[in-house]
Amino acid sequence: MEYYAFWAFCIPKEQKELAHARRLRTAHNVHAVAPAALDRAKARIEPELRAAIGQLDENLRIPATYHLGWTDRNGNANDGGGGKGVRSTLAVLGAEAVHGSVETAVPGGIAVELIHNFSLIHDDIMDNDRMRRHRATVWDIFGVGDAIIVGDAMHALAFQVLINSENPASVAATERLARATSAMIAGQAQDVALDRGSTATLAECIAMEANKTGALLAQSVAIGAVLGGGDDAAVDALEHFGVTLGIAFQAVDDVLGIWGDSVATGKPVGNDLREQKKSMPIAIALDRGGDIGQAVMQAFTEPMGDAQIDALAAQLDSAGIRAEVQSIARDYLDEAIASLDSAELAPQAKAELIELANFIWERDS
Q: Which contacts (CB < 8 Å, 24+ apart) does range 62-70 have?
């Protein structure tokens, strides 16, 4: 079974420098404004995603629609609380990058959103998180048992939607979805193992994040390209873009998990420290050792209160660890953008992929 590892691409220095310039130029103009591609993809995919969710057993529909932000806990229509739709947007842009139509990408966009949301519902249970997207989590409202079943139902539905597509490439796309899901689950197992262990290294953390986050992002854009009729060179370039973007995405998440504003993130300040997660900042501290490594090891021996969490976050920041994680995220973002130059892609879709990558870097939630 193939899993993602610590990716190191042989991209020429000049290409990386050009990608860096693109990131700086685009990020300067974006200021974390959501790219138009997100709304465009959502407008096309969400109606059919709603129709797919409507196929679920009636006992599963309300928890599913609640999680997706479409209803309140009683099933009444609700506007807000859903995710950004990054993965379905990647599927759309992947198809357009190889000169395919949005229509060809729709089953893939639905499938990757369902897999992503299945993983979120289960992650919230495993992490004991009671808040997501500024609302109580599914398990907190409906119970652990119902949440597990709803996640399982979304997982199964994703494959059903994709394999039932009339696109001749649906089998190849489904194989990629299975590969991404297997890697994502492996990444989750690696994450649990790191949290249970007494230590963690940066290399272990990046390998875990390439699986847990990078695999689905990689296959989201690659599935779109496969459904859109892309050749191997284009699909490979887009897959490389997705996995490196995934590591950058998770590195930004790791910063927000400690130093993010709870108003923006929808989770308590310092939540990753409260849960004693061995995210990238903690792995760097443990790798470094010395005073900061000892401070983390000591803090993680027992539950921490808010004052202890604030103090440890400040120590990590003073030691330059927040800046180091941000630098790692920037490097992987540049790597992702540079990888798009390794194939002939439609210029507009390529520009929108770069804009989306910069938005991920600039986001605060």
A: 63/138, 63/141, 63/142, 63/146, 63/147, 63/150, 64/150, 64/153, 64/154, 66/138, 66/141, 66/142, 67/117, 67/120, 67/121, 67/138, 67/150, 68/117, 69/133, 69/135
Alpha helices per DSSP H over the chain: 13-30, 36-53, 58-67, 86-97, 102-126, 138-142, 144-163, 170-196, 202-209, 215-227, 232-259, 262-265, 271-274, 280-288, 290-299, 306-318, 321-339, 347-362
Residue 1 has pLDDT above 50, yes or no: no
Residue 171: predicted pLDDT: 97
Residue 301 tokens, joined: 């021996």
3-class secondary structure, 56: coil
The DSSP bridge pattern shows strands 131-132 and 135-136 to be: antiparallel
Buried b (16+ CB within 10 A) or exposed e, 63-89: bbbbbbbbbeeeeeebeebbbbbbbbb
Instruction: Give the long-range contacts of residues 140-144, CB within 8 A, separation 24 or more.
Output: 141/63, 141/66, 141/73, 142/63, 142/66, 142/73
Beta bridge partners of 135: 132
Residue 217, amino acid: L
Residue-wise pLDDT tens digits, 15-51: 555 555 555 545 444 446 899 999 999 999 999 999 9
Q: Look at the block and give the residue holding tokens 């500024």.
A: 134
Backbone phi, then psi, for 339, in 5-degree steps? Answer: -65, -20
Which of 109, 348, 340, 96 has its CA nearest to residue 233?
A: 340
Query: What letter represents residue 320's amino acid?
Result: G
DSSP secondary structure letter of residue 15:
H
**Mean pLDDT within 83-108:** 97
Count of Cβ atoms closer than 10 Å to residue 157 Cβ? 22
Cα separation, 355 vs 349, in Å, equals 10
